[in-house]
Amino acid sequence: MQVTFLGTSSGVPTRARNVSSVAVRLPQRSELWLFDCGEATQHQFLRSELRISQLRRIFITHMHGDHIFGLPGLLASLGLAGNCGGIDIYGPDPLRDYLESILRTSSTRIGYPLRTHRVHTAASSGIVLLDDKEFVVTCALLSHRIPAYAYRIDQKPRMGTFNIAKARELGISPGPIYADLKAGHEIILADGRIIKGSTLCGPQKPGYSFVYCTDTVFTESAINLARGADLLIHESTFAHSETEMAYQRQHSTTIMAAQTAAEAKVGQLVLTHLSPRYAHGNTLTPADLLNEAKAIFPSTFLAKDFLSFEIIPKVSSSSDL
Ligand SMILES: [Zn+2]
Ligand SMILES: [Zn+2]
């Protein structure tokens, strides 16, 4: 799973940081999933290595403008490109009304299947939104001025390495049958022998997990959703000295983000959604925010626009969880 930040500022863009958006590239699928779509996200796509034509799903955390003003333009451009196979969008009310009215009043014809899925839950432990062959997506309600949801992707455990030598020893010649065996399926050979693919594969490899958590003040539901994840991307709008303002505006400080990561025992934390007040040249800078969080959770990194990296699997033991 490759993560690319397309926008890392809160509220308004700055010269260095656009408003919220994160793209996740799924392994073996040539597919992109987008989390939030602040204004000019499609411009950020053009300046990145990512291909907008690979976009398949969009997850919207909440209906504040800095997370959704880029949607209509991006969806319209996908239509004009003419090669979009369809988009599924997930988000809270009034996402569907917002999109329908803006597309209608601007006479925008989309021309591809656009499916909106309403996210609505009060469960603090998270509910399953999507469950396919390889991935499960869950979400949980955060604590913000309006309903806001955190999302988690879990890649299911993958089959271990296929032992070709063992397959040959059993007299199975290479061919399409290998794909079935690699997938762990049971097959019947021409001579009547039944072979279980899983017996020719090494131990299962654990999948990766990713959690995107914004906008919110410190909340138990974020800890519950993020528990044991390889990567937690968490908002950190304010420095610790602005804790009072963070509570007033229902946003997180560096310390709240780090405490969430520490209590959830995640592998890595990345801070994003930084207030423009910490732009370089001001008294406090993003580097100060990073140091505050690292004092509590050392494996913390700072997001910046176009930062792109592969998720590293967390070295975990069952006692971690
Ligand atoms: Zn925001
Ligand atoms: Zn917000």
How many DSSP-defined strands? 16
**How would you sum up the major sheet?**
7 strands, mixed
**Structure ligands:** zinc ion
DSSP helix fraction: 10-25%
Quick description:
This protein is an alpha/beta fold and 321 residues long. Helices cover 25% and strands 24% of the residues.
How would you characterize this protein structure?
It is built from 10 helices and 16 strands. It has 2 domains: 2-158 and 205-310, Ribonuclease Z/Hydroxyacylglutathione hydrolase-like (Metallo-beta-lactamase, Chain A), CATH 3.60.15; 164-200, no CATH class. The radius of gyration is 22 Å and the shape is globular. It has helices spanning 41-46, 65-68, 71-81, 95-105, 164-169, 177-182, 220-226, 243-249, 254-264, 286-296; strands spanning 2-7, 21-26, 31-35, 55-59, 87-91, 114-118, 127-131, 135-141, 149-155, 186-188, 194-196, 209-213, 231-235, 268-272, 300-302, 308-310. The protein is α/β, with parallel strands linked by helices and 321 residues long. Helices cover 25% and strands 24% of the residues. The structure holds zinc ion (2 copies). One zinc ion (ZN) binds at residues 10, 20, 64, 66-67, 215, 273.
Sum up the structure in keywords.
alpha/beta; globular; 10 helices; Metallo-beta-lactamase, Chain A; 2 domains; disordered C terminus; binds zinc ion; 321 residues; 7-stranded mixed sheet
